[in-house]
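Journal club side-thread
Mid-discussion, someone asked how the predicted structure for our own chain would compare to the paper's figures. Pasting it here so we can look after the session.
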Amino acid sequence: MEKAVFGIVGMGVMGRNLALNIANHGYTAAVYNRTDSKTTDFIEGPAKYKEIIGTYSYKELAAALEKPRRIMMMVKAGPAVDAVIKDVKPYLEKGDILIDGGNSFYQDTERRTKALNAEGFHYLGAGVSGGEEGALHGPSLMPGGDVEAWKAVEEIFNAAAAKADDGEACVAYLGPRGAGHYVKMVHNGIEYGDMQLIAEAYDLLHRGLGMSDELLGELFSEWNDDFLSSYLVEITADILKTKDAATGEPILSVILDDAKQKGTGKWTSQDAMDLGAPTHTINAAVSSRIISSMKEQRVEASEILKGPVPNFKEDEKDQLIEAVKHALYASKIISYAQGFGLLSLASAEYEYGLDLRTVAKIWRAGCIIRADLLDDIMSAFERNRDLSNMLLDEQFKEEIVLRQGAMRYVISTAVGMGIPIYTMSAALGYFDAFRTARLPANLTQAQRDYFGAHTYRRLDREGSFHTEWQKD
Protein backbone atom coordinates (compact mmCIF):
# COMPACT_ATOMS: atom_id res chain seq x y z
CA MET A 1 0.00 0.00 0.00
CA GLU A 2 1.22 3.52 -0.81
CA LYS A 3 2.61 5.35 2.20
CA ALA A 4 1.05 8.64 3.26
CA VAL A 5 3.21 11.77 3.25
CA PHE A 6 1.34 13.51 6.07
CA GLY A 7 -0.41 12.37 9.24
CA ILE A 8 -3.08 14.10 11.28
CA VAL A 9 -4.08 13.26 14.85
CA GLY A 10 -7.49 14.55 15.87
CA MET A 11 -10.65 14.18 13.80
CA GLY A 12 -12.51 17.21 15.05
CA VAL A 13 -13.82 19.53 12.35
CA MET A 14 -10.44 21.27 11.92
CA GLY A 15 -8.49 18.02 11.64
CA ARG A 16 -10.97 16.46 9.22
CA ASN A 17 -11.09 19.49 6.96
CA LEU A 18 -7.32 19.92 6.94
CA ALA A 19 -6.94 16.26 5.91
CA LEU A 20 -9.40 16.80 3.06
CA ASN A 21 -7.56 19.98 2.05
CA ILE A 22 -4.22 18.16 1.88
CA ALA A 23 -5.71 15.25 -0.05
CA ASN A 24 -7.42 17.64 -2.47
CA HIS A 25 -3.99 19.01 -3.32
CA GLY A 26 -2.63 15.61 -4.29
CA TYR A 27 -0.97 14.46 -1.06
CA THR A 28 -1.93 11.20 0.63
CA ALA A 29 -2.81 11.70 4.28
CA ALA A 30 -3.12 9.24 7.17
CA VAL A 31 -5.48 10.10 10.03
CA TYR A 32 -6.02 8.90 13.59
CA ASN A 33 -8.46 9.70 16.37
CA ARG A 34 -8.54 8.13 19.82
CA THR A 35 -12.26 7.39 19.30
CA ASP A 36 -12.31 4.77 16.53
CA SER A 37 -15.84 5.61 15.42
CA LYS A 38 -14.80 9.15 14.46
CA THR A 39 -12.09 7.80 12.19
CA THR A 40 -14.48 5.27 10.64
CA ASP A 41 -17.20 7.86 10.08
CA PHE A 42 -14.70 10.15 8.37
CA ILE A 43 -13.14 7.45 6.17
CA GLU A 44 -16.53 6.07 5.11
CA GLY A 45 -18.03 9.54 4.74
CA PRO A 46 -16.29 12.73 3.50
CA ALA A 47 -12.97 10.94 2.86
CA LYS A 48 -14.43 7.91 1.07
CA TYR A 49 -13.05 8.70 -2.38
CA LYS A 50 -10.00 10.65 -1.20
CA GLU A 51 -6.38 9.62 -0.82
CA ILE A 52 -6.79 9.37 2.95
CA ILE A 53 -5.81 6.34 5.05
CA GLY A 54 -7.64 5.65 8.30
CA THR A 55 -5.59 4.23 11.17
CA TYR A 56 -6.68 2.97 14.57
CA SER A 57 -3.54 3.13 16.70
CA TYR A 58 -0.39 5.22 16.90
CA LYS A 59 1.59 2.17 15.78
CA GLU A 60 -0.61 1.86 12.69
CA LEU A 61 -0.35 5.59 12.02
CA ALA A 62 3.45 5.51 12.19
CA ALA A 63 3.57 2.49 9.90
CA ALA A 64 1.36 4.23 7.34
CA LEU A 65 3.68 7.22 6.95
CA GLU A 66 6.76 7.62 4.79
CA LYS A 67 9.96 8.73 6.54
CA PRO A 68 10.67 11.19 7.96
CA ARG A 69 7.19 10.98 9.41
CA ARG A 70 5.23 14.24 9.44
CA ILE A 71 2.44 14.18 12.05
CA MET A 72 0.26 17.20 12.77
CA MET A 73 -1.68 17.26 16.04
CA MET A 74 -5.08 18.95 15.73
CA VAL A 75 -6.15 18.51 19.35
CA LYS A 76 -7.13 20.86 22.15
CA ALA A 77 -4.29 23.00 23.48
CA GLY A 78 -2.80 22.06 26.84
CA PRO A 79 -2.47 18.59 28.41
CA ALA A 80 -3.99 16.88 25.36
CA VAL A 81 -0.96 17.87 23.26
CA ASP A 82 1.46 16.47 25.84
CA ALA A 83 -0.60 13.27 26.00
CA VAL A 84 -0.41 12.75 22.23
CA ILE A 85 3.34 13.39 22.22
CA LYS A 86 3.85 10.88 25.03
CA ASP A 87 1.72 8.20 23.37
CA VAL A 88 3.05 8.54 19.81
CA LYS A 89 6.77 8.86 20.62
CA PRO A 90 7.42 5.12 21.12
CA TYR A 91 6.52 4.55 17.45
CA LEU A 92 8.68 7.35 16.03
CA GLU A 93 12.34 7.48 15.04
CA LYS A 94 14.94 10.21 15.29
CA GLY A 95 14.38 12.80 12.58
CA ASP A 96 10.59 12.42 12.58
CA ILE A 97 8.52 15.60 12.77
CA LEU A 98 5.70 16.51 15.15
CA ILE A 99 3.57 19.58 14.42
CA ASP A 100 1.18 21.24 16.87
CA GLY A 101 -1.62 22.94 14.90
CA GLY A 102 -3.66 23.99 17.94
CA ASN A 103 -3.85 27.28 19.82
CA SER A 104 -1.03 26.32 22.19
CA PHE A 105 0.56 28.85 24.52
CA TYR A 106 3.91 29.77 23.00
CA GLN A 107 5.83 28.92 26.19
CA ASP A 108 4.44 25.37 26.04
CA THR A 109 5.78 25.17 22.49
CA GLU A 110 9.17 26.43 23.68
CA ARG A 111 9.23 23.66 26.33
CA ARG A 112 8.13 20.91 23.95
CA THR A 113 10.62 21.98 21.28
CA LYS A 114 13.52 21.80 23.72
CA ALA A 115 12.48 18.41 25.11
CA LEU A 116 11.84 16.79 21.72
CA ASN A 117 15.01 18.19 20.14
CA ALA A 118 16.98 16.60 22.97
CA GLU A 119 15.50 13.23 21.98
CA GLY A 120 16.30 13.68 18.29
CA PHE A 121 12.84 14.70 17.06
CA HIS A 122 11.86 17.81 15.12
CA TYR A 123 9.02 20.04 16.28
CA LEU A 124 6.91 22.79 14.74
CA GLY A 125 4.36 24.99 16.48
CA ALA A 126 2.07 26.05 13.65
CA GLY A 127 -0.74 28.51 14.23
CA VAL A 128 -3.76 27.76 12.03
CA SER A 129 -6.37 30.45 11.41
CA GLY A 130 -9.50 30.43 9.32
CA GLY A 131 -11.92 28.20 11.18
CA GLU A 132 -13.44 25.10 9.63
CA GLU A 133 -13.91 26.72 6.20
CA GLY A 134 -10.30 27.89 6.19
CA ALA A 135 -9.02 24.44 7.15
CA LEU A 136 -10.89 22.97 4.16
CA HIS A 137 -10.31 25.63 1.52
CA GLY A 138 -7.09 27.26 2.72
CA PRO A 139 -6.08 28.63 6.13
CA SER A 140 -3.42 31.10 7.10
CA LEU A 141 -0.57 29.01 8.54
CA MET A 142 1.99 30.38 10.99
CA PRO A 143 4.77 27.80 11.54
CA GLY A 144 7.71 28.27 13.85
CA GLY A 145 10.31 25.83 15.15
CA ASP A 146 13.01 23.72 13.55
CA VAL A 147 14.08 24.94 10.11
CA GLU A 148 14.69 21.33 8.99
CA ALA A 149 11.12 20.45 9.90
CA TRP A 150 9.80 23.45 8.00
CA LYS A 151 11.68 22.43 4.86
CA ALA A 152 10.16 18.95 5.09
CA VAL A 153 6.56 20.28 5.17
CA GLU A 154 6.97 23.50 3.16
CA GLU A 155 5.61 22.09 -0.09
CA ILE A 156 2.51 20.60 1.59
CA PHE A 157 1.83 23.74 3.64
CA ASN A 158 2.21 25.99 0.58
CA ALA A 159 -0.30 23.87 -1.31
CA ALA A 160 -2.85 23.77 1.54
CA ALA A 161 -2.61 27.43 2.60
CA ALA A 162 -4.94 30.20 1.48
CA LYS A 163 -3.84 32.24 -1.52
CA ALA A 164 -3.92 36.04 -1.49
CA ASP A 165 -5.17 38.01 -4.49
CA ASP A 166 -1.63 38.11 -5.88
CA GLY A 167 -1.45 34.30 -5.72
CA GLU A 168 1.02 34.13 -2.84
CA ALA A 169 0.43 31.40 -0.25
CA CYS A 170 -0.49 32.68 3.19
CA VAL A 171 2.19 30.71 4.99
CA ALA A 172 5.83 31.38 5.85
CA TYR A 173 8.43 30.14 8.29
CA LEU A 174 8.39 32.72 11.07
CA GLY A 175 11.23 31.82 13.40
CA PRO A 176 12.59 29.35 15.94
CA ARG A 177 10.86 27.53 18.81
CA GLY A 178 7.58 29.23 19.78
CA ALA A 179 7.63 31.98 17.12
CA GLY A 180 4.71 30.57 15.15
CA HIS A 181 2.43 30.18 18.15
CA TYR A 182 3.44 33.62 19.42
CA VAL A 183 2.37 35.19 16.13
CA LYS A 184 -0.90 33.22 16.26
CA MET A 185 -1.49 34.44 19.83
CA VAL A 186 -1.09 38.07 18.77
CA HIS A 187 -3.29 37.43 15.73
CA ASN A 188 -6.01 36.32 18.13
CA GLY A 189 -5.43 39.35 20.37
CA ILE A 190 -5.95 41.65 17.39
CA GLU A 191 -9.02 39.56 16.53
CA TYR A 192 -10.45 40.24 20.01
CA GLY A 193 -9.95 43.98 19.49
CA ASP A 194 -11.43 43.93 15.99
CA MET A 195 -14.53 42.02 17.08
CA GLN A 196 -15.21 44.27 20.05
CA LEU A 197 -14.75 47.46 18.00
CA ILE A 198 -17.33 46.18 15.53
CA ALA A 199 -19.67 45.22 18.38
CA GLU A 200 -19.40 48.72 19.87
CA ALA A 201 -20.16 50.32 16.51
CA TYR A 202 -23.21 48.06 16.20
CA ASP A 203 -24.36 48.86 19.76
CA LEU A 204 -24.14 52.62 19.27
CA LEU A 205 -26.08 52.55 16.01
CA HIS A 206 -28.61 49.96 17.22
CA ARG A 207 -29.41 51.36 20.66
CA GLY A 208 -28.35 54.95 20.13
CA LEU A 209 -30.01 55.55 16.76
CA GLY A 210 -32.60 52.78 16.94
CA MET A 211 -31.45 51.22 13.66
CA SER A 212 -32.84 47.75 13.01
CA ASP A 213 -30.58 44.75 12.53
CA GLU A 214 -31.78 44.49 8.92
CA LEU A 215 -30.80 48.10 8.16
CA LEU A 216 -27.48 47.63 9.93
CA GLY A 217 -26.85 44.50 7.88
CA GLU A 218 -27.19 46.56 4.71
CA LEU A 219 -24.96 49.26 6.18
CA PHE A 220 -22.19 46.81 7.08
CA SER A 221 -22.43 45.32 3.58
CA GLU A 222 -21.85 48.81 2.15
CA TRP A 223 -18.92 49.33 4.50
CA ASN A 224 -17.42 46.02 3.42
CA ASP A 225 -17.33 47.31 -0.16
CA ASP A 226 -15.20 50.27 0.94
CA PHE A 227 -12.03 50.77 3.02
CA LEU A 228 -13.47 48.65 5.89
CA SER A 229 -13.43 45.55 3.67
CA SER A 230 -12.60 42.56 5.87
CA TYR A 231 -13.80 39.10 6.80
CA LEU A 232 -15.18 40.22 10.17
CA VAL A 233 -17.17 43.12 8.68
CA GLU A 234 -18.46 40.77 5.97
CA ILE A 235 -19.74 38.15 8.41
CA THR A 236 -21.18 40.86 10.66
CA ALA A 237 -23.37 41.96 7.74
CA ASP A 238 -24.51 38.35 7.24
CA ILE A 239 -25.26 37.91 10.95
CA LEU A 240 -27.33 41.10 11.10
CA LYS A 241 -29.45 39.95 8.15
CA THR A 242 -30.10 36.48 9.62
CA LYS A 243 -33.46 35.58 11.19
CA ASP A 244 -33.91 33.03 13.96
CA ALA A 245 -35.51 29.89 12.54
CA ALA A 246 -37.66 29.33 15.63
CA THR A 247 -39.05 32.84 16.20
CA GLY A 248 -38.55 34.66 12.93
CA GLU A 249 -36.89 37.47 14.87
CA PRO A 250 -33.38 38.81 14.13
CA ILE A 251 -30.91 36.19 15.34
CA LEU A 252 -29.08 38.67 17.58
CA SER A 253 -32.26 39.30 19.56
CA VAL A 254 -32.19 35.72 20.91
CA ILE A 255 -28.44 35.22 21.46
CA LEU A 256 -27.26 35.60 25.08
CA ASP A 257 -24.88 38.56 25.53
CA ASP A 258 -22.15 36.54 27.26
CA ALA A 259 -19.01 36.30 25.11
CA LYS A 260 -16.80 33.29 25.81
CA GLN A 261 -13.03 33.15 25.33
CA LYS A 262 -10.39 30.42 25.05
CA GLY A 263 -7.54 32.45 26.53
CA THR A 264 -5.47 33.66 23.57
CA GLY A 265 -6.58 37.28 23.97
CA LYS A 266 -5.79 37.16 27.67
CA TRP A 267 -2.37 35.63 26.93
CA THR A 268 -1.67 38.50 24.53
CA SER A 269 -2.46 41.11 27.18
CA GLN A 270 -0.49 39.27 29.86
CA ASP A 271 2.61 38.88 27.72
CA ALA A 272 2.36 42.47 26.52
CA MET A 273 2.43 43.62 30.12
CA ASP A 274 5.44 41.40 30.84
CA LEU A 275 7.29 42.93 27.88
CA GLY A 276 6.15 46.49 28.53
CA ALA A 277 4.13 46.78 25.31
CA PRO A 278 1.04 49.03 25.40
CA THR A 279 -1.92 47.08 24.00
CA HIS A 280 -4.78 49.27 25.22
CA THR A 281 -7.34 48.13 22.64
CA ILE A 282 -6.71 44.42 23.06
CA ASN A 283 -6.78 44.76 26.84
CA ALA A 284 -10.11 46.59 26.68
CA ALA A 285 -11.55 43.89 24.42
CA VAL A 286 -10.51 41.17 26.87
CA SER A 287 -12.08 43.14 29.75
CA SER A 288 -15.25 43.63 27.69
CA ARG A 289 -15.63 39.87 27.32
CA ILE A 290 -15.10 39.45 31.05
CA ILE A 291 -17.78 41.97 32.00
CA SER A 292 -20.16 40.40 29.46
CA SER A 293 -19.93 37.18 31.47
CA MET A 294 -21.32 38.99 34.55
CA LYS A 295 -24.83 38.76 33.12
CA GLU A 296 -26.78 38.36 36.39
CA GLN A 297 -24.94 41.23 38.05
CA ARG A 298 -25.47 43.46 35.03
CA VAL A 299 -29.19 42.74 34.97
CA GLU A 300 -29.43 43.61 38.68
CA ALA A 301 -27.35 46.77 38.21
CA SER A 302 -29.52 47.89 35.31
CA GLU A 303 -32.45 48.18 37.71
CA ILE A 304 -30.72 50.39 40.27
CA LEU A 305 -27.87 52.23 38.48
CA LYS A 306 -29.59 54.66 36.16
CA GLY A 307 -27.86 56.67 33.45
CA PRO A 308 -28.86 58.80 30.49
CA VAL A 309 -31.50 57.56 28.08
CA PRO A 310 -30.08 57.31 24.54
CA ASN A 311 -31.53 60.16 22.53
CA PHE A 312 -30.25 61.57 19.27
CA LYS A 313 -31.45 64.31 16.93
CA GLU A 314 -32.98 62.91 13.78
CA ASP A 315 -31.25 65.43 11.52
CA GLU A 316 -27.79 64.37 12.81
CA LYS A 317 -28.16 60.62 12.25
CA ASP A 318 -26.42 60.52 8.88
CA GLN A 319 -23.52 62.48 10.35
CA LEU A 320 -23.09 59.97 13.19
CA ILE A 321 -23.34 56.95 10.87
CA GLU A 322 -20.58 58.35 8.65
CA ALA A 323 -18.47 59.21 11.70
CA VAL A 324 -18.82 55.66 13.09
CA LYS A 325 -17.54 54.27 9.79
CA HIS A 326 -14.39 56.39 9.93
CA ALA A 327 -13.92 55.97 13.68
CA LEU A 328 -14.11 52.18 13.33
CA TYR A 329 -11.42 52.22 10.63
CA ALA A 330 -9.13 54.48 12.65
CA SER A 331 -9.57 52.31 15.73
CA LYS A 332 -8.74 49.18 13.70
CA ILE A 333 -5.51 50.79 12.49
CA ILE A 334 -4.56 51.66 16.07
CA SER A 335 -5.37 48.13 17.27
CA TYR A 336 -3.19 46.58 14.54
CA ALA A 337 -0.43 49.06 15.39
CA GLN A 338 -0.47 47.81 18.98
CA GLY A 339 -0.35 44.18 17.85
CA PHE A 340 2.57 44.72 15.48
CA GLY A 341 4.35 46.79 18.14
CA LEU A 342 4.05 43.83 20.52
CA LEU A 343 5.43 41.48 17.84
CA SER A 344 8.41 43.78 17.36
CA LEU A 345 9.24 43.81 21.08
CA ALA A 346 8.71 40.05 21.42
CA SER A 347 10.91 39.34 18.41
CA ALA A 348 13.82 41.13 20.07
CA GLU A 349 13.17 39.76 23.56
CA TYR A 350 12.73 36.13 22.52
CA GLU A 351 15.16 36.22 19.58
CA TYR A 352 12.54 35.16 17.05
CA GLY A 353 13.78 37.35 14.21
CA LEU A 354 10.25 38.08 13.01
CA ASP A 355 9.81 39.84 9.67
CA LEU A 356 6.70 41.99 10.25
CA ARG A 357 6.12 42.44 6.53
CA THR A 358 5.91 38.65 6.21
CA VAL A 359 3.46 38.47 9.12
CA ALA A 360 1.18 40.99 7.39
CA LYS A 361 1.56 39.09 4.10
CA ILE A 362 0.38 35.73 5.47
CA TRP A 363 -2.61 37.33 7.23
CA ARG A 364 -4.04 38.73 3.98
CA ALA A 365 -6.18 35.64 3.25
CA GLY A 366 -7.46 32.60 5.10
CA CYS A 367 -7.28 33.99 8.63
CA ILE A 368 -10.02 35.60 10.71
CA ILE A 369 -8.51 39.11 10.68
CA ARG A 370 -7.92 39.17 6.93
CA ALA A 371 -8.65 42.61 5.58
CA ASP A 372 -7.66 45.00 2.79
CA LEU A 373 -5.88 46.95 5.54
CA LEU A 374 -3.17 44.26 5.67
CA ASP A 375 -1.97 45.15 2.16
CA ASP A 376 -1.31 48.67 3.44
CA ILE A 377 0.44 47.29 6.53
CA MET A 378 2.64 45.12 4.33
CA SER A 379 3.51 48.19 2.22
CA ALA A 380 4.38 50.19 5.34
CA PHE A 381 6.95 47.58 6.39
CA GLU A 382 8.26 47.45 2.82
CA ARG A 383 8.90 51.19 3.00
CA ASN A 384 10.64 50.84 6.35
CA ARG A 385 11.70 47.41 7.65
CA ASP A 386 12.66 49.02 10.97
CA LEU A 387 9.35 50.84 11.45
CA SER A 388 8.90 51.01 15.23
CA ASN A 389 5.19 51.86 15.12
CA MET A 390 2.71 51.76 12.26
CA LEU A 391 1.36 55.18 13.23
CA LEU A 392 4.70 56.71 12.27
CA ASP A 393 4.29 55.53 8.68
CA GLU A 394 3.36 58.43 6.39
CA GLN A 395 0.22 56.76 5.00
CA PHE A 396 -1.15 55.65 8.38
CA LYS A 397 -0.29 59.00 9.94
CA GLU A 398 -2.51 60.69 7.37
CA GLU A 399 -5.30 58.12 7.83
CA ILE A 400 -5.41 58.62 11.60
CA VAL A 401 -5.03 62.41 11.65
CA LEU A 402 -7.82 62.64 9.06
CA ARG A 403 -10.17 60.47 11.15
CA GLN A 404 -9.36 61.41 14.74
CA GLY A 405 -12.18 63.97 14.71
CA ALA A 406 -14.65 61.21 13.88
CA MET A 407 -13.32 59.13 16.78
CA ARG A 408 -13.72 62.00 19.23
CA TYR A 409 -17.24 62.77 17.99
CA VAL A 410 -18.36 59.13 18.17
CA ILE A 411 -16.87 58.53 21.62
CA SER A 412 -18.28 61.74 23.12
CA THR A 413 -21.69 60.93 21.63
CA ALA A 414 -21.65 57.42 23.08
CA VAL A 415 -20.57 58.71 26.49
CA GLY A 416 -23.41 61.23 26.43
CA MET A 417 -25.86 58.44 25.69
CA GLY A 418 -24.45 56.15 28.37
CA ILE A 419 -23.51 53.49 25.80
CA PRO A 420 -20.19 51.76 26.62
CA ILE A 421 -17.55 52.24 23.96
CA TYR A 422 -14.60 51.06 26.01
CA THR A 423 -12.46 49.55 23.27
CA MET A 424 -12.70 52.50 20.89
CA SER A 425 -12.03 54.85 23.82
CA ALA A 426 -8.93 52.80 24.64
CA ALA A 427 -7.76 53.12 21.03
CA LEU A 428 -8.11 56.89 21.16
CA GLY A 429 -6.44 56.99 24.57
CA TYR A 430 -3.46 55.11 23.14
CA PHE A 431 -3.28 57.50 20.19
CA ASP A 432 -3.38 60.58 22.43
CA ALA A 433 -0.78 59.14 24.81
CA PHE A 434 1.52 58.09 21.97
CA ARG A 435 1.44 61.55 20.39
CA THR A 436 2.09 63.34 23.72
CA ALA A 437 5.71 64.39 24.25
CA ARG A 438 5.33 64.90 28.02
CA LEU A 439 2.94 62.74 30.01
CA PRO A 440 2.00 63.16 33.69
CA ALA A 441 4.23 60.21 34.59
CA ASN A 442 6.51 62.79 36.22
CA LEU A 443 3.88 63.12 38.97
CA THR A 444 3.61 59.33 39.24
CA GLN A 445 7.37 59.07 39.72
CA ALA A 446 7.32 61.83 42.36
CA GLN A 447 4.54 59.99 44.22
CA ARG A 448 6.53 56.73 44.14
CA ASP A 449 9.57 58.49 45.49
CA TYR A 450 7.51 60.25 48.17
CA PHE A 451 5.97 57.11 49.70
CA GLY A 452 8.62 54.55 48.83
CA ALA A 453 11.92 56.34 48.10
CA HIS A 454 11.92 54.65 44.65
CA THR A 455 13.92 57.55 43.12
CA TYR A 456 13.32 59.24 39.78
CA ARG A 457 15.27 60.46 36.77
CA ARG A 458 15.60 64.11 35.77
CA LEU A 459 15.35 65.96 32.47
CA ASP A 460 18.43 68.09 33.09
CA ARG A 461 21.05 65.51 34.15
CA GLU A 462 21.75 61.77 34.24
CA GLY A 463 21.35 59.49 37.24
CA SER A 464 18.76 58.48 39.84
CA PHE A 465 17.56 61.06 42.37
CA HIS A 466 15.62 61.13 45.60
CA THR A 467 13.96 64.09 47.31
CA GLU A 468 13.60 64.39 51.07
CA TRP A 469 9.91 65.16 50.90
CA GLN A 470 8.40 67.09 53.80
CA LYS A 471 6.15 64.56 55.50
CA ASP A 472 3.84 65.44 58.33
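Post-session note: Residues 380 and 392 are 10 Å apart (CA to CA).
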